[in-house]
Specification:
The complex is a heterotrimer of chains A (about 160), B (about 120) and C (about 725).
Chain A lengths: L1 H10 L5 E9 L2 E6 L3 E6 L13 E7 L2 E7 H4 L12 E7 L2 E7 L1 E9 L3 E2 L13 E7 L2 E6 L1 H17 L1
Parallel strand pairs in A: 2-11, 5-7
Antiparallel strand pairs in A: 1-2, 1-8, 3-6, 4-5, 6-7, 9-10, 10-11
Chain B lengths: L3 E5 L3 H13 L3 E5 L2 H8 L6 E5 L7 H9 L9 E6 L3 H10 L3 E5 L3 H11 L2
Parallel strand pairs in B: 1-2, 1-3, 3-4, 4-5
Chain C lengths: L8 H24 L4 H20 L3 H19 L6 H23 L7 H11 L25 E8 L11 H11 L1 E8 L17 E8 L3 H7 L8 E6 L5 E3 L22 H13 L4 H4 L9 H26 L6 H24 L2 E3 L1 H4 L2 H12 L3 E6 L4 E3 H22 L3 H6 L6 E10 L2 E8 L6 H10 L11 H6 L22 H10 L3 E7 L3 E9 L4 E9 L2 E6 L3 E6 L5 E4 L3 E6 L2 E7 H4 L13 E7 L2 E7 L1 E9 L13 E6 L5 E5 L1 H10 L26 E3 L7
Parallel strand pairs in C: 7-9, 14-23, 18-20
Antiparallel strand pairs in C: 1-3, 1-4, 2-3, 4-5, 6-8, 9-10, 10-12, 11-12, 13-14, 13-21, 15-19, 15-24, 16-17, 17-18, 19-20, 22-23
The chains are: A alpha+beta (about 160), B alpha/beta (about 120), C alpha+beta (about 725).
Chain lengths: ~160, ~120, ~725
């Protein structure tokens, strides 16, 4: 079976597999369903939002729409990095909302066979595993797959709690 | 090159109707919502026909006709005015101002074209 | 060519609604000043326009009815019929009939039941002696049913000297004749051509004689010369007998209808009226959906668009030029041009959005009439005061506001304003007032419906709510909570169901309608003095006049309407009141103060107030001093929602995008007031705080440099 998945990957041919955009944060590889990705933008000026959680870096102008930017390093509780020319914003859509995810760099588009996706392993108390929907194996590589709904939804819930507090 | 017609009426629906009819008949159309607006629309365009309403705000049709006739490039340009059956005196006044002819409202598009064909090749 | 007239119907109905509104508005004013000729003129013009357009677009029943109205108005204009209140009432009723007729034409609604009655009343009003003139002919197609018979005409045509100068081409007339049949002989008479020295080049000296063989009747041959008959010599002879000689316009009824295809167009009224209903009723449902797609736009807005596109084109040609001679040292120029293009494109986008905005006047103006009629029904005297009708709102929102506003106004007439006797007894003027007011506040549009009537009966609402199980008998409720009970489904305190309101459609519908527009409604009421319903609507697409201020290098926008003044405070102007936070002393009065950077937990360049700037803001009659770094200027901004992709942020009502593409936040004044109460060193009270004794007067008020807010347009 692994062989077939490899062939699928090699020829970019999807059978029982989904396409993921992969990106890196602190050297780790993550993936996000490609259908969620609206576009990828270089780092541009972000306007900080008053009294926002630390991982919400601010908002940017995306062709006239005001889009919040979530720094995934901060979201996952990692140390924040200097932004450089590789820093990239992945614009994803979640329901009717559009959110930008700030990552270190994007790497590839991969087909990952659904059977190659495993449960997210426990990763210690620092990282909330509910942000992930599994771990994909592509050849030797391990890719943590992002649960965008949860990630952005959870953030929204927290925000609501803040408002009502 | 298709001919250019200047359509002047403060009523959007009338203007739409006249313009559309003229476009269907192969004319290019300039539109003005009153006399002053119409003069502003000219902007160097060569106009082969003017169709104007009479009762309009800012500058009425009569003043527009008079103004146009003072311009060398409009000396021989056919000008049709849109009148109503209750405006017999306006018809005379319009002719004195230099109008070529008139169309009595209400009219159908084909009637408009019939009248236009009287004054334009 | 067959042209589907329905494509113009959307514009037509929009226009008719506007004329009708103008007519009603002027009629209501006419009632107060019956001798105002300008009012009569505007009513007449509206009727005239309605008649003309409805005739053209095939609504001959409307045209026929308006003709009666127009005739009466014409006689009123001439002074033959005197304007009286009976007449105004009749004219208002006619406007109603017109409105129903238009509705019937548009949606196939039933015809007005009192059509004939009103027509007769209009005729009577014109005076029995004056027979109603024939209404305009209906535009209907009649196949020409003549029996063809070959005839021969001898035509002479000597154009008047002015012919060419009137834009007429005599050759076209000859061509028209040729199209009627066969030109057996054409000869030109050149005897009138003068000596070259006397020749005026733009005069026509030729004359023609034509023999025409055709099966067409004389009228059609005459029709060819219709535009020239009074200025030219035209003779038309049929066969041997001279049927008619034309030199000056005579035969009325012929010259009147050059566009008529056949003489059968002149038909009696009754016949056209009888056959009219059908075209109106057969309007397909499709045209109903297209009505939303038609927007009438002011010329200025369109001009704005055109100018912006112009800038775009210039920027583009700049790029083209630079690219043509591209060298590395030109790159900054390319970037400059590109950013100019970006700006224009964005502005263009915003202006296009503003095209959707229409003034609230379009919905407000129906209310004076509504109140007038309702008040008359109920025997009340009510005047309507409207302000802020220029406030613009998205067209769709504006249209959807009609129903909730109508309900609130009906309510104010029915339950709010008392009968004249009751008012007099209460020591008030017999005439009540209903106010309709719109304005911007903190990035919202607020619409207030107020009345100076009896006010809400707090106790009765509470009892009713308890009876309905909406509130517990022993529940402690403040005014706001009690008033908000009337928005509960099924709640109606009307003791009797009147024709005006209380028909089961409750205030809950008003609330639901507003919530559908992301708006809210609140009530203020004072017993014996009246009630005010405040509708607050977001202006997701609205444009805001803003004042931009700087804080820590970032730009924030304040709604200009909330800004009272701004100045740089002197040391000693800022005081701390124990337990009430900071205040700034303005002309001897303490005003609660908020340091924006503290509320937003950012740095400030001017942490020391004397290095910064205080902007005095007003919200619901209370003042707040906001400390920022600097004042930047005035600008119009387009509101962008923060909630759409993020969430509500206290102190911000939204964001906007500046000319350079950067995001700037728009400050929310009520939110800032809340922040001032909560985030500063304790809950700060309102401006009218009672602790003035503890405050020293400022040394010299003059020392404060008042900074005038001078608009610097973008």
């Amino acid at each position: 079976m692994a062989g077939i998945a490899d062939i699928d990957h090699a020829v970019g041919f999807a059978t029982d597999s989904d396409q993921f955009l992969t990106f890196t944060i602190q050297g780790e590889e993550y993936g996000i369903e490609i259908l969620r990705v609206q576009e990828i933008k270089g780092f541009s000026k972000i306007r900080p939002i008053p009294n926002a959680p630390a991982y919400v870096k601010g908002v940017m102008n995306l062709r006239g729409t005001v889009v919040p930017i979530v720094d995934l390093r901060a979201r996952f509780g990692m140390c924040e990095a200097e932004y450089n020319q590789f820093t990239v914003i992945i614009v994803v859509s979640v329901g009717t909302r559009v959110v930008g995810l700030l990552v270190d760099a994007v790497s590839d588009v991969l087909n990952i066979n659904r059977q190659q996706i495993e449960e997210t392993p426990e990763m210690g108390s620092d990282t909330d595993t509910t942000f992930f929907c599994g771990m994909g194996k592509v050849g030797e590589k391990l890719v943590l797959l992002l649960n965008v709904d949860r990630l952005v939804g959870a953030e929204r819930l927290e925000a609501l709690e803040q408002v009502s507090a | 090159m298709s001919k250019m017609v200047l359509v002047v009426d403060d009523s959007t629906s009338m203007r739409q109707m006249v313009s559309f009819t003229m476009k269907e008949a192969g004319f290019e159309v300039l539109e003005g919502s009153n006399g002053q607006d119409a003069l502003a629309q000219l902007n160097g365009h060569k106009v082969h026909l003017v169709i104007t309403d009479l009762n309009m705000p800012v500058m009425d049709g009569m003043s527009l006709i008079r103004q146009l006739r003072t311009r060398p490039d409009f000396k021989f340009t056919p000008i049709l005015m849109l009148t109503t059956e209750s405006q017999e005196s306006k018809k005379q006044e319009g002719k004195a101002a230099g109008a070529t002819g008139w169309i009595v409202k209400p009219f159908r598009p084909e009637q408009l074209l019939q009248v236009v064909s009287k004054v334009v090749h | 060519m067959q042209i589907d007239m329905q494509r113009f119907h959307a514009a037509f109905f929009d226009e008719m609604a506007e004329h009708l509104a103008t007519m009603e508005e002027s009629l209501l004013s006419l009632e107060r000043s019956p001798d105002d000729h300008e009012l009569l003129g505007s009513i007449f013009r509206a009727a005239h326009s309605i008649k003309g357009a409805s005739g053209t677009f095939g609504f001959s029943q409307i045209a026929g009815f308006t003709h009666h109205l127009e005739s009466l108005l014409d006689r009123m204009r001439d002074g033959q019929v005197r304007t009286g209140s009976d007449l105004v009432a009749l004219l208002l009723r006619s406007a109603d009939v017109l409105s129903v007729l238009l509705g019937a034409a548009k949606d196939g609604a039933p015809l007005p039941a009192d059509l004939e009655e009103v027509v007769q009343a209009l005729e009577r009003a014109q005076g029995a002696a004056n027979q109603a003139a024939e209404p305009p002919a209906a535009v209907e197609h009649h196949p020409v049913g003549h029996v063809p018979a070959s005839r021969e005409y001898q035509i002479t045509f000597a154009p008047g000297a002015d012919l060419l100068r009137h834009g007429m081409d005599p050759l076209l007339l000859l061509r028209d004749l040729a199209q009627l049949g066969e030109l057996a002989a054409v000869s030109v008479d050149t005897t009138r051509v003068p000596h070259l020295a006397d020749l005026v080049p733009d005069e026509c000296y030729f004359a023609w004689t034509v023999r025409l063989k055709t099966d067409k009747p004389l009228e059609e041959v005459q029709g060819v010369f219709i535009f020239v008959e009074d200025s030219s010599q035209v003779t038309i002879q049929q066969e041997s007998s001279t049927l008619q000689t034309t030199s000056q316009g005579d035969a009325p009824g012929r010259g009147d209808r050059p566009a008529s295809a056949s003489p059968s167009d002149a038909r009696p009224v009754t016949q056209s009226a009888a056959s009219d209903a059908s075209p109106a009723r057969t309007m397909p449902a499709k045209s109903r959906t297209s009505e939303c797609s038609s927007i009438r736009v002011s010329v200025e807005k369109v001009d704005d668009l055109i100018n912006l596109v112009g800038e775009l084109v210039i920027a583009q040609s700049m790029i083209n030029e630079v690219l043509g001679q591209l060298a590395s040292d030109n790159l900054p120029t390319v970037q400059e041009a590109l950013s100019a293009m970006n700006r224009s494109t964005r502005d263009l986008q915003e202006r296009v959005m503003s095209v959707r905005m229409i003034p609230l006047a379009s919905v407000f103006r129906r209310f004076p009439r509504l109140v007038h009629d309702l008040a008359a029904d109920l025997g009340k005297q009510i005047s309507v005061e409207i302000s802020g009708e220029d406030t613009e709102l998205d067209k769709q929102m504006t249209e959807q506001l009609g129903d909730p506003l109508t309900h609130l106004i009906r309510n104010a007439v029915d339950h709010g304003i008392e009968l004249p006797a009751d008012r007099l007894q209460a020591g008030k003027a017999a005439q009540g007032t209903i106010g309709l007011r719109a304005y911007h506040e903190g990035g919202n549009v607020v619409i207030e419906v107020s009345d100076n009537g009896r006010g809400l009966d707090r106790e009765r609402i509470r009892q009713k709510a308890v009876a309905l199980g909406l509130a517990a008998p022993d529940e402690q409720l403040n005014d706001e909570q009690v008033y908000s009970l009337i928005f509960a489904p099924g709640f109606s305190t009307a003791q009797r169901v009147t024709d005006v309101s209380g028909r089961g459609v409750g205030m809950d519908v008003v609330k639901r309608n507003l919530e559908a527009l992301n708006g809210s409604v609140s009530i203020a009421s004072t017993p014996g003095q009246g009630s005010t319903f405040r509708l607050r609507l977001p202006l997701t697409m609205a444009i805001l006049d803003g004042l931009s201020v700087g804080l820590n290098g970032e730009i924030y926008i304040l709604p200009l309407l909330s800004v009272v003044e701004s100045f740089r405070p002197k040391s000693g102007d800022v005081k701390t009141v124990a337990g009430r936070g900071e205040v700034i002393v303005v002309r001897g009065k303490p005003v609660p103060m908020l340091r924006l950077h503290r509320a937003f937990h950012t740095a400030a360049r001017a942490a020391d107030p004397t290095q910064g700037l205080i902007v005095i803001l007003e919200h619901q009659g209370k003042h707040l001093g906001l400390l920022v770094d600097e004042l930047l200027g005035q600008m119009q901004v387009v509101m962008k929602s923060l909630e759409a992709n993020y969430q509500k942020v206290e102190g911000l009502s939204g964001a906007t995008i500046l000319g350079d593409g950067q995001v700037a936040f728009i400050l929310d004044v009520p939110g800032l007031a809340r922040l001032a109460r909560s985030t500063e060193s304790g809950p700060a009270g309102p401006a009218e705080c009672s602790h003035t004794q503890s405050l020293r007067q400022p040394e010299t008020t003059e020392e404060r440099q008042a900074v005038a807010i001078v608009g610097s347009p973008r």
